[in-house]
User: What shape does this take?
Amino acid sequence: MSLYSCFFSSNNRYSSSRYTYTGYGNGSGNRSSRRRFGFARSSVTSYDDNTYFYGRNRRRPHYWERERERRNNLNRNRNNRRNRRRSPSPETPPSRPPKPVIPKEELAKELHCKDVDLHIETNTKKHRTDDYDCTKKRKVNGKVEEAELVVRRGDSIKMTLTFDRPYSKEKNDLKLCFSLGENPLPSKGTKNVFEIDESGKKSFKSHEWGATLVDKKGNDATLLISIPANCIIGEWNFYVVTVSEGKDKQGNPQKITKNFEIEDDVIILFNPWCKDDECYMKDEAALDEYILNDIGGVWRGNAYQYSPKHWNFGQFEEGILDAALQLIRLGFNSKLRPMSDPVKVSRMVAKMVNASDDNGILVGNWSGDYADGKSPTSWVGSVKIIQQWQKSGPVKYGQCWVFSCVTTTICRALGLPCRTVTNFSSAHDSDQSNCIEKYFMKQNGADEPINYDGSSDSVWNFHVWNEVWMARNDLFDFTDPGWQVIDATPQETSEGVYTCGPCPVTAIRKGMCRTNYDCGFIFSEVNADEIHWRVLPDGSLERLKFDKKKIGKYISTKKPDGGCVGYGNSDRFDLTLDYKPPEGSAEERETVMNAHNTAFQRKPFAYAEKENEKAVKFQLTHNDNCMIGGKMVIEVKAKNESNVERDLKYVGIFVAPTSYTGARGDTFFKKYFGKSSLKPGEEKVFKSLLDPEDYLDKLVEQASVSIVAVGKVARKGNLYTAEKMKKEHQVRFRRPDIKVECPKEAHVGDNVKFVISFDNPLEKALTCCSVSMESVGFTDFDDAPEVDVPPKTTYRREFTMPAVKAKKNAAVNFSFECKEIPDISGTATIRIVS
Assistant: This one.
């Protein structure tokens, strides 16, 4: 057998059957001779004259190989759906014969690495990454997957190298290499080669790679490898590089480089525990919530009624970290350098969680028609959404809280401290005026809303975004670490794409609306003034209403206690004063004027007039805790606070369905009250009753209605002036909660019984029913169709699920969907011990 065939035959490999020597490469790290699942064994298509790779075949393909395969699968699925003929595969170019290699006798004289122990258990515990499923040996799709090393930048990791003889620095030229991507280059920060310090005295700078020898026994050398605090996050290849003397084809001396590559990559993430990382958070207890907690909730409702929806973030579940890294690589179009910067990464996450500009995760839908997908209210966690995206592309459908919760999962998986934030009475400023304007025209004796000059400003019952913790070294005024707002819900474009932020919360509070990124838009969401204009016949504007306090209420997140959110509001953590000074204070008005003066579309006449004082105080009250299917009492109180008698020309109550985005349907309930008078100091109450028959078939999702009370007051006497009064509230009917019964504790491997139940409050059956669930610690089931639930009966169902993972608080979230009352949900937590 020739020397050529000795080293490149598929049946004869150097040292043992576990190892492969391949003489290839183009000097830049291209591995074009590798096949799909390992090194090429019988042919080489490109090579460097003096570079060799050896080691075990990879257990899984490189990430770029996996992503190519995923793109091919998605394209095949699309082509199959469209009934297209597939183009014939191009011919495989003939392989280039490999050059003869160095004789085995010469290779045997040099130092070679035989194995690398990554000390996965020790390193992941130190780096607080041991919760990731991929760091443990596990079974995936019936196959046993070996553990992977996941660590955080700005810290050191322990490795033990095993050689075929004792290592000596004097006798052996040995280096280590970390490379990232398909074409790694030192100039791009994606290839780092460094020597081992044996003195034990060298301390490495926070922004440099390095390795120190800490122990040497026989053929083993144990190292501490320092990872820079500013390195690119991602899946890094690790090589042990040995350099020896050799000869070229002409017999001239040359250096021969041999790289021993480990079987899996080393995954490096952001490190909020490291002072030199830009996302460093001093409060380590808070990181138990914002990085390590994989369960929680998101607040929804309106400014009068709000409650949490339980959510499984699941950032440590199988495949989620892989998907998170894949997502931002897709967003950056495989440009890796930006992946070292939390500002750019968080902005890219906000862009890629929605699918508006690319193949991001979620498609938004606020139409109420979800026939070709899944209703946003039916999701109870991020894991199924992200896993579905990896298999088949953009997932249908999401709304703001779904976008936000998926964003929390992605950020926490990458190591960015993140929380989900809800703003009630949240404004949407469409024209960059930093105020919310609505226009009316007098028609048939009444001011009716009109679309004026293309304005589409609106006020949502609630809107949900995210805060990510980091320093802003790109901003002169806000370099200190702090919370930054990002928003993945596709509302308005930012720099031409649907993304928003990051923007410092402190900049929003000060009304510094030219701060990057999107400060003006976010300021308007929390602290804009709402102004109503009447459009006069000559086109000029007359101000009808000026409301300083309507926008931005009860800005909420989960209390940072590291646990699960409860059913009530005791777990709500109020952030309102982080976003704006106390409502009505001099500081708050100064902030609003700062925003007004820095608006891109400034309206200088908006604040010119003084607000008219009302002589009659108008108050609207109702039952804020009315169960759907029940009766709601609505009251309007009118009190004369002047010293002159007033005439009430009329009082009216109107009710219409509304979506949480502020879109209003047709009025389905009207009640008028006739003339009356109010003496000085007198108060009168006008009461009406809203029956289930009035509203049940008119409601849209979220079961919200707009209740509007209007009135007209005139002053008695020779001078007869009239003023109009209006109050509007958004009211959400309460839905039943799912009660979940289960044991308090179980062991891994146990089949645990869960019983879920709730009462149907309606006088009619619940139809088109289905149950879904998502959990941490159990094997989830797919969405299950259910039979109709009869009127005024109790729905009850038992499920048995195996416990598969030890968890201190394993949350199990259930969602029940039906045509009549969507979004019925409930949760339970159970301790799972090994």
Remarks:
- The chain has four domains: 3-81+95-269, 284-597, 616-732, 739-833.
- The domain at 284-597 is CATH 3.90.260.10 (Coagulation Factor XIII; Chain A, domain 2).
- The chain is about 15% helix and 35% strand.
- The CA atoms of residues 652 and 672 lie 4 Å apart.
